[in-house]
Amino acid sequence: MDILGLIKSSGVRNFAKLLSANVVAQVIGLVVYPILTRLYAPEDFGLLNLFLSIGGVLVVVSTAEYYNAIVLPEEEKDARSLTYVSLLLLIITTLLTAITVIFSQSISLLFKSPDLARYYWIMPLYVFVMGAWNILNYWYIRHKFFGGISGYQISQSVLSAGGKVGFGYAGVLHGGMIYSMVIAPFISLMMSLWHGVKSSKFKCFDRFDYSHVIATAKQYRNFPLYVLPRSFINVLATQLPILLLTPFFGAEKVGLLSMALLLGYTPIGTITRAFYQVLYQHTTARVHSATKIGDVFGRFVGYGTVVIIPLFAGLGMVLPTITAWLLGEEWRVVGEYIRWMLPWLYVSLLTGSVCFLSDVFMQQKKGLIFEILLAVCRAAGLCIGIIVNDFAVAIAVYSIGSAIAVLAQLIWLASLVRRYDHSLVQVG
User: Fold this and answer.
1) For residue 160, which of 178, 180, 182 has the smallest C-alpha distance?
2) d(CA 47, CA 152)
3) Which one of 77, 204, 216, 310 has the fewest CB atoms closer than 10 angstroms to its CB?
């Protein structure tokens, strides 16, 4: 079945459901930004993204990436055990994060952001909520409960957007957006969980088999051994512009960059998540039935290229004008930053949609190598900008290095697909 055939199947009906939910959620989020940029200053966005950057790193560590494996087992008992492992590790990480609140002043001084200490106390709740959603999300993917995923995405976006605007008009600046990014996903998580309970998606959770949980954790040890460092490095590399540039260039410039990353990556992330969630489940099912996957992979990359490159070329010519009109004249430079990101965003859309292939084929160790390469390229680009004391140079070299590294990863993933399909031909 090629990508067009998949569109006619239940798989792409699920994709359409997820994509439409993602689009609605992101449109809601983006629509309020012309309001937010007139309520909040660039340094407020810098503070928000510093909080989210630190939180993002902690969330990755929180479950040792066991939740990524929930989709893979053929036996429901194994998937249930992986869920238990993920939850236990999340609780432990949340408690450890709570201890770090004691050192919030020191952490804020490290990043030269004194305001961070005022809001760091909410970090443990953020870690728990986002980690819990990761677990629930992959459980829903396994059971094709895409309605639960879609409901979370839309409700979270509505609540987050409303909260940011509400706090802004109430005069709760600086922390208003941070509060919204914690409260909104918490409420959405509870709603999605309730939806799943009503739909009987947890009926198999009847007992806790300690010995089987331990055995399953050992069976999927590649995830904490290789996927965890891979994901940690990936998130750290993604957050490097915020974490590394803030002490040298200040919250205002980093706030402008964070807006560029948001506007540039949000549409890409929307499409990527929808493709990832459906293709992960679809590909896993094909591998379990010893069916080729190269046709889907090849057409996905081909169609993506035909559509994206002309679109990006057109956007590149008008981005500064669009951002100035949308956000205000002081945000014009945001469009210029996004221009440099376009090649990286293109390959990220393709690679991010199929990066699960390294997990499907248990090639996590090699996947880790590519994440290290990506982190090195990004760090080198940022360091060059810091050395020459030029913020624009840092963004440009960072984006170019990211594009090269992600493209190398895509080529490697394509080789895994070819090798798998070839093995089926030999067996046949």
Assistant:
1) 180
2) 25
3) 310
